[in-house]
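Severity: low
Component: inverse-folding endpoint
Summary: output formatting inconsistent between runs
Steps to reproduce: submit the following structure tokens with default settings.
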């Protein structure tokens, strides 16, 4: 992946600061978190249930040179997202407002509750912010079999920004209304969740296509690394690795094949209007 001089200025780096309350959810919460280790979604239920009493974290540390380089890279990627989505929204007669990107270590407070490393990167609609503990990428490589590159991080961030796009377009709110109505079974809501996540993968593909057309950031192997990351966090791969079998009815993010399919559809078309996963998957 080629670097540019773009910087967004919408990154808040909390990695050198003392965190929030120590999470005291216990082993059960950690097991659940491992099973649903994912890219994206509204984590408020798990986060809230996992936030227990504990003493506040006060230790601080200096960021290393590598830490600072990672922060600079994420800032650059954040700007790429701003430029691309601002243009997409303008083309469709809308105004884009970027999310805040928050880097943290171990635990921090979010608008959706206490954020912790075990949850992986996520988007919080309540404060319209993306939360990323960079240790997730070690887990992605060591536990879920993805080869992590700089563009892997770009894909993950683009997926989370895709959830922000859904919030700006009202999709997140509609899904939340369905969930709160109580009229739908868990299996039905799981299918809605899959459609939501695959659309965020589609948006990540749109972002990759359009950003490369503008900035020429892609190098050989970059798209493959994004595909590998998408496949690694497919529900079937996660379930097979965590519990030894696959239960399709419990999917909430889509299979590895689906995640690859929708990312590539976004990348091949570059057209946000081609990403109606809901009509295609909920017939």
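Observed output (run 2 of 3):
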């Amino acid at each position: 992946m080629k670097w540019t001089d773009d910087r967004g200025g919408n990154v808040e780096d909390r990695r050198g600061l003392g965190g929030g309350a120590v999470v005291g959810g216990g082993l059960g919460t950690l097991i659940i978190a491992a099973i649903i280790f994912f890219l994206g979604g509204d984590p408020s239920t798990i986060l809230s249930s996992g936030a227990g009493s504990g003493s506040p974290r006060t230790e601080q540390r200096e960021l290393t040179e590598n830490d600072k380089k990672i922060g600079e890279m994420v800032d650059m990627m954040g700007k790429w997202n701003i430029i691309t989505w601002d243009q997409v929204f303008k083309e469709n007669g809308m105004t884009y407002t970027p999310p805040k990107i928050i880097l943290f270590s171990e635990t921090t407070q979010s608008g959706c509750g206490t954020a912790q490393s075990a949850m992986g990167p996520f988007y919080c609609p309540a404060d319209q912010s993306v939360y990323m503990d960079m240790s997730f990428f070690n887990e992605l490589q060591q536990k879920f079999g993805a080869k992590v590159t700089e563009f892997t991080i770009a894909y993950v961030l683009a997926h989370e920004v895709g959830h922000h796009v859904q919030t700006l377009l009202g999709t997140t709110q509609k899904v939340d209304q369905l969930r709160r109505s109580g009229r739908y079974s868990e299996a039905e809501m799981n299918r809605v969740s899959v459609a939501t996540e695959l659309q965020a993968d589609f948006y990540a593909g749109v972002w990759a296509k359009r950003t490369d057309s503008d900035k020429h950031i892609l190098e050989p192997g970059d798209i493959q690394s994004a595909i590998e990351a998408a496949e690694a966090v497919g529900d079937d791969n996660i379930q097979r690795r965590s519990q030894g079998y696959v239960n399709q009815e419990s999917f909430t993010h889509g299979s590895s094949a689906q995640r690859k399919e929708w990312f590539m559809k976004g990348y091949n078309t570059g057209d946000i209007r081609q990403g109606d996963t809901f009509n295609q998957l909920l017939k």
